[in-house]
Amino acid sequence: MKVLAVETSSAVISVAVVDEHRLLAEYILNQERNHSQKLMPAVEQVLEDASLALGDIDVFAVACGPGSFTGLRIGVATVKGLAQALKKPVVGVPTLDGLAFNLACAQGLICPIMDARRAQVYTSVYRWSRGGLERLEEYLAVSVEKLIEVLNRWDEPVHFCGDGIFAYRSVIEERMGSRAVFAPPTHALQRASSIAWLALERALAGDTQNYWELQPFYLRKSQAEQRFEKRSKEAGC
């Protein structure tokens, strides 16, 4: 089984193809380029380098969120279009699960943190257990201070990844000291290969979707939606 995955939930754009035994090809660009212009050329390049055609793909996967509202819509729409055209199933993988998988086999807790702006992070807490990820908390949009309160329920090392480590590292180190371990740049950000592997595991277990069922997972409302609701309340609607 071959899975093609795309990751556009942040400034990073990534595309990867895996089969049941290995990573066949991966493309990663972290330059805040226009995802709508770069994604399909990246898909074509990865397929060419892996000596595959779109028709060779059995399952299409995407990081479905949380993350950039525009980036998620581009990634989900692209995967839905490919799956519809080729009549193939899809798998939507939560972005935070993919980030946590970057640190597979870490001893202790795994905590991906994505900078959600407005002094918040998108986050959850995981443990590598019995050869797989175990999620210990709900998907959250919280302040770093609140997250540290959650993490203090456990007395063990916490491995952090995600772009939030660049914005909040000093705060975390100040509050957690040596318990905080930070991923190196090669494993800190989103990777389509992690999304692909998690999607492969689900596909092999029969857990796939039809393209029309796939939707972005935003976790919180956009600023535009919040402003609209605020204006509606003020107008008495």
Bin the helical content: 25-40%
Kindly state the number of beta strands. 12
Alpha plus pi helix count: 8
Could you say which structural class the secondary elements and strand pairing correspond to? alpha/beta
Architecture overview:
38% of the residues lie in helices and 24% in strands. Strands 6, 7, 8, 9, 10, 11 and 12 form a seven-stranded mixed β-sheet that branches. The protein has a five-stranded mixed β-sheet with strand order 3-2-1-4-5, sandwiched between helices. With 237 residues, the chain is α/β, with parallel strands linked by helices. The radius of gyration is 18 Å and the shape is globular. It has helices at residues 35-49, 69-86, 95-101, 144-151, 164-176, 185-188, 192-204, 223-234, and strands at 3-7, 13-18, 23-29, 59-65, 90-94, 109-115, 121-123, 126-129, 132-135, 140-142, 158-161, 180-182. It starts with a strand and ends with a helix. Strand 8 and strand 9 form a beta hairpin. Mean pLDDT is 93; it is low at 222-234. Helix 3 packs across helix 7 (192-204).
Task: Provide key terms for this protein.
five-stranded mixed sheet, 8 helices, 38% helix, alpha/beta, 237 residues, seven-stranded mixed sheet
Architecture blueprint of SSEs:
Layout: E1 3-7, E2 13-18, E3 23-29, H1 35-49, E4 59-65, H2 69-86, E5 90-94, H3 95-101, E6 109-115, E7 121-123, E8 126-129, E9 132-135, E10 140-142, H4 144-151, E11 158-161, H5 164-176, E12 180-182, H6 185-188, H7 192-204, H8 223-234
Parallel strand pairs: 1-4, 4-5, 6-11, 11-12
Antiparallel strand pairs: 1-2, 2-3, 6-7, 6-8, 7-10, 8-9
